[in-house]
Predict the structure.
Amino acid sequence: MLMNPIVSAITSGVEEGVFPGAVLLATKGRKRIFEAAGWACLLPRRIRMTKETIFDLSSLTKPVATTYAIMCLNRDGRLDLRDRLKKFFKVPDDKAAITIQHLLSHSSGLPAWRPYYRKYQGDDIVERILRERLIYSPGLRSIYSDLGFILLGRIIEEASGRSLDRFCEEAVFTPLGMHDTSFHPLKQRCAATELCPWRKRIIIGEVHDENAWAMGRPAGHAGLFSTAPDLLRFSKEIMRCYSGKDGLIPKKIVCQFLKRQPIPGSTWALGWDTPTPGKSTSGKFFSRQSVGHLGFTGTSLWIDLSRKIIILLLTNRIHPSRKNEGIRRFRPMIHDLVMKRLMDKA
């Protein structure tokens, strides 16, 4: 009996060391593909991957927690995309023109990343970001920046009067029934990430991102944990809102956030990426009306808004080492296989 090509591909990914394990969940209407393979943990002992395994989402924190929280605050009139950074922080003159929209579209001029965790902790990291030299003028171009989303996490707290984790729980996760989504996961259900050279241990159930860990509190750029079923609920909510079908966020706001920004050379919408023509990690078949995001730990989420297709691929590819980059070739391949199946092209 021939193996399902999608199952075969995921199994091969495990056998070839692309990742220890993976969960794939994809839907189009009533069509559904849901598979788990491999191992949630190899060290210190082997634990099987299941469909309910909790993953460190890494940068999927940006759209799932931070961006959606900003949508909620925008809906309620507590934040405007034109609000400037200086409304929330004391900033030097070079950052006076930076807006929330710049931060969401990665066009603020802030650098991509800095290894703050080597020297700083807690609020000192935010202060260092505010003193960083801009590498281009706000709005001129786009460079993907963790630093901007760290600031957005703090802006959410200022605007809501709640900690980031509490506001997201109240405004996003609980209303959407995302009961396994949290900045404070159940460790025993989590997939392992790296044998961290800095912390000198296998990371399980605590944030892998070093800067987020050093901050000592939930951060806007990384640190959210979730499962494939919860992320499916979230993705379906995005599609409902985009279609104007009784979602929590008005269609006008969601459409504004999911539209690619008019920034030279950029594929970014607000908090979301869009397919890169000819070489997208989403593969060949996602339409231009698609949004998605990747996570460093080996996670990804893509939504084709016009075809109403959702593909979630959650892996622990950095377990036990981040040097494993086989996911780069695997992602577009598995996305193409799944899209063919969902669109009846195979």
Q: What stands out?
A: The two ends are 18 Å apart (CA to CA).
